[in-house]
């Protein structure tokens, strides 16, 4: 009998397989089949974005955040990746018997603060408690609704040949932060998760440049490698990125060298990949850099008239194909 | 240090306490504070209902359904209890490493069939896999969006003195079905869960009688006792019900006698309590009885100009106060 393995939830190839062979097979409808970060609903003429995520990260408190902050940012960011303004969130908790109420309070407080920052409201909730051992501490589901302005049409399908690829900041901070605390590895400086509500970065940009933004994705599970492959296959185009244009924190790169990790596979929780019109790319980049969350933004590549592959031009001048991570780099990263 | 206990998720007094002392304290906003089965959102003039629920039932397959059917019905029913027409659902799975893929397929298929029946679509999803022992098998979160017609204004606050209380069918089927399979207790006839999408029962009724329906709730966790107390305290009225008007299946009552359970505390997954205008109660009742899901409907009591208590007139003529269940009758019932 075939059984679920960790990689089915890793955001890589096996995740894709279970989604297409099971979920799309039975739930089959055009909205779900689009496989966007957030689905677009047309309810009596209003375009609403809708997205769900469960958070199972371990440990629940980590440098730069906690499961509550992450749960709000994750859903706010998925709405933002569709060009939506986040409005309302639900929050559903599954708690293990014996979980300290003081920890729950810290988490709830952190969710409230992150919502306040993002300008979204938690308007529906649910709490389930299961016996000791039936869940590991605390899991949180957040599901969000946002509204999409008329001039915005962001979809994984929309990459055009010649478009520029912007990455809004350094790669891998979340992944290495979680890895370091979980495995007890310490570096010279503490690496913090980048966990942030990205709508703050994009508000003005959507208004001014909305029509020039073709695709957006946040490289969470599966990292930049997974996201760029999703865009290449979703839009039927090729993608070329330049290794020396990808921003990294020194400590993150060191950690990757030390641990033998590919930084393109590392998870991020406060970064976005944007595919934008060539002629507006510099303007958008400069605008991003004005905001603390976009300070390290960089144009890292472009969209090619090529097969649906992702190519990386390395610092030493060679070119290699960037594949979707097959398995699970680090389970329970979000 | 105070810790979470099972009763914090039981739908009774301790659930209420953690909601008000923790969630409402931090998330504080009028939509959430209303504590309805589904929240009412006003998005650019459209009234949408929004609700979330996680399902942690054990075992995942039970007489009359499975966790997938339950997850769809639960959310469809919460939308229906606000008078909404269910439109879109998200489905987020948390799976234990090693969970049989064939079981997952049965569950997904069952969700798809229930959605088809209810006329709702699953348009957003998420899958997380956690290591063996970090979750017990499978948990599912469903979050739903529905649309509310203009003439409908159903809220736990709206009970009026003189209103009649309708229960749409027999009480306790789900609770006893789960208990029997879990504890290996068998009865002469197999008791099946009543798990059903209730929007099917109400479609025509909302259209014709929407304005005469003041309150609706489905008596899930905490049972009829919890729901009537929520209505009494939400609307500031008293409630009187008559024991001999409450419909039960013979086997469910026998099981309660045998196990010493109060049937008013048992969970239901395909029944609703309605508080309706006195002069339309009979008409609505007759209409309900025409539908297979409402065949056993009964007017079980009325709303009183009294303190916020729930009174039960027993079959032997005495009156007792029906209290909110303090603890957890049966954990992981949904």
Keywords:
globular, 60s Ribosomal Protein L30, Chain: A, seven-stranded mixed β-sheet, alpha+beta, 2 domains, five-stranded mixed β-sheet, about 325 residues, 14 strands, Phosphoribosyl-aminoimidazole Synthetase, Chain A, domain 2, homodimer
Please characterize this protein's 3D structure.
Chain A is α+β, with helices and mostly antiparallel strands. The first copy, chain A, folds into two domains: 34-148, PurM-like, N-terminal domain (60s Ribosomal Protein L30, Chain: A, 2-Layer Sandwich), CATH 3.30.1330; 156-321, Alpha-Beta Complex (Phosphoribosyl-aminoimidazole Synthetase, Chain A, domain 2). In chain A, 31% of the residues lie in helices and 25% in strands. The first copy, chain A, has helices at residues 13-27, 30-33, 67-80, 101-118, 173-183, 199-209, 223-235, 250-259, 281-289; strands spanning 39-43, 46-55, 61-62, 65-66, 84-96, 121-130, 138-148, 164-167, 213-217, 238-242, 273-276, 298-304, 310-313, 319-321. A seven-stranded mixed beta sheet of chain A has the order 9-11-8-12-10-13-14. Chain A has a five-stranded mixed beta sheet with strand order 1-2-7-5-6, with helices on one face. In chain A, a hairpin with a 2-residue loop joins strand 3 and strand 4. In chain A, helix 3 (67-80) packs parallel to helix 4 (101-118). Chain A is globular, with a radius of gyration of 19 Å. The two termini of chain A are 28 Å apart. The interface between A and B is large, with 81 and 81 residues.
